[in-house]
Write a structure and sequence with these properties.
This protein has 3 helices and no strands. It is 74% helix and 0% strand. The protein has 151 residues and is mostly helical. The C terminus is likely disordered.
């Protein structure tokens, strides 16, 4: 009878140990999953912050180009008309507007908590959009501008 009790206790102890091991594995899986999600969210937010910084820099460049164009028109160096219908002004105003919209999208994405990724509903983030080029960004325009500046 003593042997039966000892073997019964050993089996109970074995089951208890296996139960604790299973619980430990489950807790580890949950911990690793939440750590992975936190790391992923941190990485995503870091990318958004870098893109936001680049967009703000692009916006400053767009404002500078717009100011230069207005200055040239007002000064008489450029034979264009100073109005909202001027092709160069319209192009630069559009670039400013698009950049401001992209900045707003990125700022909104940074404010939102990241949705958990599931197979049915993936999290949505604004696409990383290419920065808007201004006339001074293209080599041909820069060359033409240098020639007109020299005259």
């Amino acid at each position: 009878m003593e042997k039966d009790e000892k073997s019964g206790n050993k089996q109970n102890i074995g089951k208890t140990i296996l139960d604790y091991i299973d619980r430990g594995v489950e807790a580890s899986k949950k911990g690793l999953k939440s750590a992975g999600n936190a790391l992923s969210e941190f990485g995503d937010k870091s990318v958004l912050k870098i893109e936001l910084s680049q967009l703000k820099s692009q916006l400053a460049k767009n404002y500078t180009e717009l100011g230069k164009a207005c200055y040239k028109i007002l000064r008489g160096d450029n034979q264009g008309e100073f109005s909202a219908g001027n092709a160069e002004i319209v192009k630069l105003l559009d670039a400013v507007e698009k950049t401001e919209e992209n900045i707003a999208k990125h700022e909104e994405a940074l404010k939102k908590p990241k949705e958990s990724k599931t197979k049915d509903a993936p999290a949505t983030e604004p696409p990383a959009e290419a920065s808007v080029k201004t006339p001074s960004d293209s080599p041909a325009e820069t060359e033409n501008q240098s020639e007109s500046d020299a005259n």
